[in-house]
Amino acid sequence: MMVFNHSVDFEVQQTWSRLNNLSWTYYNIAEAAYDDFLAVEPSVEPLADEEDPAEYFDKQSRLLSASFRTIVFSAMACEAAIYDLAAIQLGDGYTSQYIDKLDLLAKWILVPSLICGKGLKENGPAINGLRTLVRTRNALVHHKSMPAFPVEESIRKADNQLEKILQETGSGFKTVVLLSLELNQLLGTSVGVLPFFEKNTINASCLTDRARISSVIARCREINANNKS
User: Fold this and answer.
1) What is the pLDDT of residues 31-41, one digit of tens each?
2) Which of 42, 66, 199, 215 is most buried, most CB within 10 Å of its CB?
3) How many other CB atoms sit within 10 Å of the CB of residue 168?
4) Which residues contact 144 (CB under 8 A, 6 or more apart)?
5) Is the pTM of this model over 0.70?
6) Do 63 and 44 touch, CB atoms closer than 8 A?
7) For residues 80 and 23, what is the distance between their CA atoms, to the nearest angstrom?
8) Which one-letter DSSP state was computed for residue 42?
9) How far is CA 57 from CA 54, 61, 162, in A?
């Protein structure tokens, strides 16, 4: 069997001008929501007998709201960013005719490959995170209520349903950061369709001066660095 190795030069357009590209705006909303989530989460514990139920349910409501906003706007940032990347690098006509019909995961796997001949790692942390984010986003967007009886069993199922979503909040936010880091690493430049999170970069559109968020982004850098090997 003969094996052929091909080396293909590719160009990445670094300067571009587009209107209504909202991926950074969506990210900023997701980041602010995740910071709210991290602030509230430690204070939400099982309701104690002597605790005021109103205060407990207020905290729980705030936690769910922050979680849902984080997940939905993280997914929206990923959707908008991959469309922008394809349109900028491959052209609006090609993107509209061929790329836009694909699901979000397929877009993130295919588009970088079309640009430079190599894609993001299909079993890497960014793409695996995107798989989870899509499932969690869909669980929210296509949410279905459930019957209230029998009471104990129904409450347990309802609590488990929401708990699964809450558990994926951090993964959803981290996915955006990991996609940006791996994409820029793959293409060899900061393409700008998502905020950039490389160390020592200044990103005025993001709220990375917040200690909680900065810590999460630093952890994402470690994950991405380990993904290189």
Assistant:
1) 999 999 999 99
2) 66
3) 21
4) none
5) yes
6) yes
7) 5
8) G
9) 5, 6, 14
